[in-house]
């Protein structure tokens, strides 16, 4: 960092992808490896309002016990959207005896990656994140005002450089901040909604890709505020405009650095097809991870660029699983279901876990589709929150991916949120989700 931090933040990620932690003096930085900061286990299992889960065993039943925060190895990173020089230290929660707290989403992803590692494999991943810049100063949110004209953005302008350049100061600061935080931000484009943009993060180690996505969402929201706007990754901020998605691309390399999905042929290896089969088999039961909030289901409607049918295809963006074209050595899977409101650690864990289950079981997928997936008779993802919660909580496949403790915590959290949020009107829901996700 160019300036010595005056304060630091220590934060872990809760089930909704929200930072939970403490602001402490800069002198704590030297003590973090020794477990200087404690945090209740229940804090990583609060609802989207930041409130305790009423019937969680992590609260009164166990005396609301503390765990110990340990550095993830990713930090510290600067927080350039703040006025005072500050550092963020990403943390992960452990028990006093050093065992990982199984309700921590980052541990859940690490468990899946360790299973790949046991085979001598490393997962490489990249994410594409969509978000809106909005004006939330009025009674309802609206597309952000153009810094050039002072008028609100009023139309979709796909791949328009003018739309990007209208926000040149914001994007310049965003890219400089991303570089300072070691977030590999790549191409930026204007998307299908007024004031909607997408930025791709470069591929790399899957855990770093999850860290990058989590930190990038925090950065975008913070930098938007610094520029007098708000940013949101809500799945569907505007009822009549495009939703926000988060696509993930992944491949797997062996100990010699060879892509296990590539054998030089157009169709790829058996492992590629087994992984596709696993992703398809787990997809319906995984919907709660891809669509974790009430607002998420407004995005999941046919013909709205969000997959609703369970299918795969080569070079077809209407399919839930797409195998991009290009050089065989770059053979990879693109998973296109998730909204921008997801927790990146849980999303990558469930996708990569499903792919590994497919490889372990040796299953083969159905034939790839051709044409418009929305016109085909395909098995469908659940279209309502309650069904997604029930399927996630009772799935044998999900239990092969996540520990029971995390599944229980997630189900309790989402049941509580569902009872609170479904009584709110759309504007009230928007206010809850605007910056939280």
From TrEMBL:
Biological process (GO) annotations held by this record are: glutamine biosynthetic process; polyamine catabolic process
The answer to keyword Oxidoreductase applying to this record is no
Residue ranges constituting the GS catalytic domain according to the UniProt record = 105-437
Instruction: Give the matching PROSITE patterns.
Output: GLNA_ATP (PS00181), GS_CATALYTIC (PS51987)
Gene3D superfamilies cross-referenced by the UniProt entry = Glutamine synthetase/guanido kinase, catalytic domain (3.30.590.10)
Cofactors (names) = Mg(2+)
One Pfam family matching this protein:
Gln-synt_C
Q: Which SMART domains match?
A: Gln-synt_C
InterPro entries, alphabetized: Gln_synt_N_sf, Gln_synth/guanido_kin_cat_dom, Gln_synth_cat_dom, Gln_synth_gly_rich_site
Which family, according to the similarity comment? Belongs to the glutamine synthetase family.
Protein name, entry field:
Glutamine synthetase
Q: Which organism is it from?
A: Profundibacter amoris
Source taxonomy: Bacteria, Pseudomonadati, Pseudomonadota, Alphaproteobacteria, Rhodobacterales
């Amino acid at each position: 960092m160019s300036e010595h931090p005056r304060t630091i933040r220590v934060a872990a990620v809760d089930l909704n992808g929200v930072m939970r932690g403490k602001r402490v003096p800069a002198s704590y930085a030297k003590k973090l490896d020794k477990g200087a900061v404690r945090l209740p286990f229940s804090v990583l299992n609060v609802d989207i309002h930041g409130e305790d889960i009423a019937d969680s065993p992590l609260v009164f039943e166990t005396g609301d016990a503390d765990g110990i925060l340990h550095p993830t190895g990713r930090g510290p990173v600067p927080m350039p959207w703040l006025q005072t020089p500050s550092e963020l230290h990403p943390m992960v929660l452990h028990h006093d005896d050093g065992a990982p707290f199984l309700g921590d989403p980052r541990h859940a992803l690490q468990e899946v990656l360790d299973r790949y590692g046991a085979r001598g494999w490393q997962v490489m991943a990249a994410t594409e994140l969509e978000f809106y810049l909005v004006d939330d100063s009025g009674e309802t949110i609206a597309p952000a005002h153009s810094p050039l004209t002072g008028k609100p953005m009023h139309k979709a302008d796909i791949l328009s450089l003018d739309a990007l350049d209208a926000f040149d100061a914001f994007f310049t600061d965003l890219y400089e901040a991303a570089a300072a935080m070691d977030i590999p931000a790549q191409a930026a484009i204007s998307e299908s909604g007024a004031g909607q943009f997408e930025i791709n993060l470069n591929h790399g180690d899957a855990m770093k890709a999850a860290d990058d996505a989590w930190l990038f969402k925090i950065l975008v929201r913070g930098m938007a505020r610094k520029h007098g706007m708000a940013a949101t990754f809500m799945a569907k901020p505007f009822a009549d405009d495009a939703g926000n998605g988060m696509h993930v691309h992944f491949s797997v390399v062996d100990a010699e650095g060879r892509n296990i999905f590539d054998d030089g042929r157009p169709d790829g290896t058996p492992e590629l097809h087994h992984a596709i089969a696993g992703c398809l088999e787990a997809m319906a039961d995984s919907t709660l991870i891809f669509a974790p909030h009430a607002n998420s289901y407004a995005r999941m409607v046919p013909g709205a660029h969000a997959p609703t049918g369970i299918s795969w295809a080569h070079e077809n963006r209407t399919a839930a699983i797409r195998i991009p074209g290009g050089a065989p050595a770059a053979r990879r899977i693109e998973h296109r279901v998730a909204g921008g409101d997801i927790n990146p650690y849980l999303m990558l864990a469930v996708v990569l876990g499903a792919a590994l289950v497919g490889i372990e079981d040796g299953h083969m997928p159905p034939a790839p589709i051709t044409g418009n997936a929305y016109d085909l008779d395909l098995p469908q993802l659940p279209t309502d929150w309650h069904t997604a919660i029930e399927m996630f909580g009772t799935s044998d496949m999900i239990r092969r991916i996540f520990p029971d403790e995390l599944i229980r915590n997630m189900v309790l959290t989402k049941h509580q949120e569902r009872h609170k949020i479904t009584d709110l009107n759309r504007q009230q829901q928007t206010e809850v989700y605007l910056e939280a996700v």
